[in-house]
Amino acid sequence: MGRWEPDAKGRMIRAAMELFAERGFDETTAGDIAERAGVTERTFFRHFADKREVLFDGSKTMERTAHDAILAAPADHSPLDAALAGVVAGAGPLEDRRDHAVRRSAIVAANPSLRERELLKLAALAGAMTEALRARGVAELDAGLAAHSAVAVFQVAFVRWVSADEPPAIAACIAEAAAALRALK
Fold first, then answer.
1. Residue 73: helix, strand or coil by DSSP?
2. What tens digit of pLDDT does each residue of 155-182 get?
3. Can you spell out the DSSP letters for 87-123?
4. CA torsion 10→11→17→20, rounded to 10°?
5. Cβ atoms of 91 and 170 closer than 8 Å
6. DSSP per residue over 2-68, as a string?
7. What is the CA radius of gyration of the chain?
8. Distance CA 35, CA 96 (A)
């Protein structure tokens, strides 16, 4: 496949997922990914800072989507409800990519440095959500608690969603986890 073929980024993501599954994350190089995708290593680094970022490519989009959904939530939503609307919106694109999410989750779970990176990305998501809640006029403490609670709900729901043989929609998993959170006494 030549470098001029369309969707270089998509090919690199698919190649990386295949190689990580075949060889393991640590045994796969950016050069291996580029070669499998039919691009140069230089092209790889135009799209990704390093091979880890292939697995976290959608995190900034998720942050922006969650942030914007919080700002667009009805004014009468509580901080937690606005934050949950953010994670539902942010998780929405995952619905059509469940197979990818399942494979990605297994790769991340098998590598301690990737689990750490996942936590950093989730912390950034909570930060973006806290910022959006603050922009809605929510006090700092309440904004932080609501954002971090919604991210925890997302984490629990995501694990359920990727682990189930026939899962409901991710939004339903989030709603179920949110109801469980609210029921805690």
1. coil
2. 999 999 999 999 899 999 999 999 999 9
3. HHHHHGGGGGGHHHHHHHHHHHHT-HHHHHHHHHHHH
4. -140
5. yes
6. -TTSS-HHHHHHHHHHHHHHHH-STT--HHHHHHHHTS-HHHHHHH-SSTHHHHTTTHHHHHHHHHH
7. 18
8. 27
With beta carbons less than 8 A apart as the criterion, state whether 85 and 19 touch.
no
DSSP state of 75: T
Residue with tokens 């800072």: 49
Q: What is the pLDDT of residues 56-91, one digit of tens each?
A: 988 999 999 999 999 999 999 999 999 999 999 999
What are the residues whose beta carbons fall under 8 Å from the beta carbon of 129, sequence distance 6 or more?
63, 66, 67, 70, 83, 86, 87, 146, 147, 150, 151
Tokens read off for 128: 């973006």
Helix, coil or strand: residue 151: helix
